Structures are given as structure tokens and as C-alpha cells.
């Protein structure tokens, strides 16, 4: 077997282990992850799990990294027009596409019951800072913040606003809508898509300057 073939096989096995572990974690929490059961589910040995992740703690860290990395890839694949308002809209759709395509990873991204590893946090939380807040340093959040800052710079959002406040409002809206959709709140996929469009549009309009609102309305009328 060639080196490249062996590497591809290891990558495929690692992905299979992560996918299976994400399902176990979503349905049962950390206690549900048994390395023996995980290995059996994928058709490999526990040694393969230790080789890939070093143990259960390494596996959970890798799950968080995989979740946020997949979100970042989805965001970076979204079209980035010169108009930052359109970029924001594309990022919100990319977030929803990621959530619907990766429900088990999405479920563990901002969990109050799981420790966010240092590789995701990039810094230690302070006594006054919830662990989830430190996720704001991850590239997936920075993509959103960059788009907000671009909207502020060109006048579509107030230049004197706090960009993280605006970004948090948009993040919370999209995250909440995706959570409802994945929980089966809507009667159909079409209804969920319509509610997503209506709600994200309403929240975004509330954050815009009069100039930004005119621009946004022109975009929506054109589509």
C-alpha cells in the first residue's frame, strides 16, 4: 500500500470515528462515549482511537475542532461580494447549511455541559466570562465580525456602534433559528426556510442605518 493510500485510509477512519462519536455525544453526553463501543461502531480497534486522538479527552477536543473547522470552511466557501450586506446574508445562509448538514457537530458547538477545549478557546476564560464566550476568538466568529465591521465602515451600520454587540445579535438569531429547525419546530423544510429568511431579515434591518436600510431594501427587491 502506498504512503498516500495509507494516509487516505487513516483520514477516512479518523473522520468515521469523529462522526460516530459526535452522534454518541449529542444523544448521551460525554458519559455516552465508550472508546470500545465507538471502535466497534466504526469497525476498528480501541488502539486506533488512541492512535488518532490519544484517548477520550483528545477525542472530545477533536470533535470541537472538527465542528468549528467545518463551520469555518462553510463560511469561507460562501460568496463574498464587494457589498458587505450581501456578504452578511451569505454568511447566515452558510451557517444554516452547515447546521443542517452537520446536526451532531452543531449540537455540541455551544454546549453548557461540555468543556470547550483550549484549542478552540484560544485563551482561558476569566472568572466573570462564561466558557462559551471565549469562542468569539475562533475564525468562525471572526468571519461574522469582519463582515459587520465592513458594514460599519461603509455606513450600512452605525459607525459608533459596538461591532461585537451587532455580531452577537446576528449570531444568536441564526443559531436560535437553526436550533429550532433541527428540533423539528417547523412543519416543513419550506416553512423553516421562510421563517429563517423573514427573521434574519427583520433583525438585520433593525441594525442598519437609514442608508443601509435603503440599500438592503434595494437588494431584496432585486431578488
Q: Would you summarize the structure shown here?
A:
By secondary structure, the chain is mainly alpha-helical. It contains 11 helices and no strands.
Low-confidence stretches: none
Please give the count of helices: 11
Shape: elongated
Secondary structure category? mainly alpha
How many beta strands in the DSSP annotation?
0
Average of per-residue pLDDT values: 85
Question: What can you tell me about this protein's structure?
Answer:
There is one protein chain. This protein has 223 residues and is mainly alpha-helical. The protein has 2 domains: 1-54, Arc Repressor Mutant, subunit A; 65-222, Tetracycline Repressor, domain 2 (Orthogonal Bundle). The protein is 71% helix and 0% strand. Helix 5 (84-101) packs parallel to helix 9 (163-182) and helix 9 runs antiparallel to helix 10. The longest helix is centred in the N-terminal third of the chain and has 26 residues, at 3-28.
Spell out the blueprint of helices and strands.
Elements lengths: L2 H26 L6 H8 L3 H8 L2 H22 L6 H18 L1 H7 L8 H4 L17 H15 L9 H20 L6 H18 L3 H13 L1
Amino acid at each position: 500500500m502506498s504512503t498516500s493510500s495509507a494516509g487516505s485510509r487513516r483520514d477516512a477512519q479518523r473522520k468515521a470515528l469523529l462522526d460516530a462519536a459526535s452522534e454518541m455525544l449529542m444523544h448521551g453526553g460525554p458519559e455516552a462515549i465508550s472508546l470500545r463501543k465507538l471502535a466497534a461502531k466504526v469497525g476498528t480497534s480501541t488502539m486506533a482511537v488512541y492512535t488518532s486522538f490519544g484517548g477520550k479527552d483528545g477525542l472530545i477536543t477533536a470533535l470541537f475542532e472538527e465542528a468549528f473547522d467545518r463551520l469555518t470552511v462553510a463560511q469561507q466557501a460562501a460568496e463574498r461580494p464587494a457589498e458587505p450586506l450581501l456578504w452578511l446574508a451569505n454568511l447566515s445562509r452558510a451557517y444554516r447549511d452547515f447546521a443542517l448538514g452537520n446536526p451532531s457537530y452543531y449540537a455540541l458547538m455551544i454546549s453548557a455541559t461540555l468543556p470547550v477545549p483550549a484549542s478552540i478557546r484560544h485563551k482561558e476564560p476569566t472568572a466573570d466570562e462564561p466558557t462559551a464566550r471565549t469562542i468569539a476568538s475562533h475564525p468562525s466568529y471572526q468571519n461574522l465580525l469582519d463582515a459587520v465591521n465592513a458594514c460599519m465602515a461603509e455606513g450600512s451600520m452605525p459607525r459608533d456602534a459596538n461591532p461585537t454587540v451587532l455580531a452577537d445579535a446576528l449570531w444568536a438569531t441564526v443559531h436560535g433559528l437553526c436550533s429550532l429547525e433541527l428540533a423539528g419546530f417547523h412543519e416543513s423544510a419550506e416553512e423553516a426556510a421562510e421563517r429563517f429568511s423573514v427573521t434574519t431579515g427583520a433583525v438585520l434591518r433593525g441594525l442598519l442605518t437609514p442608508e443601509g436600510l435603503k440599500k438592503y431594501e434595494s437588494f431584496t427587491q432585486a431578488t
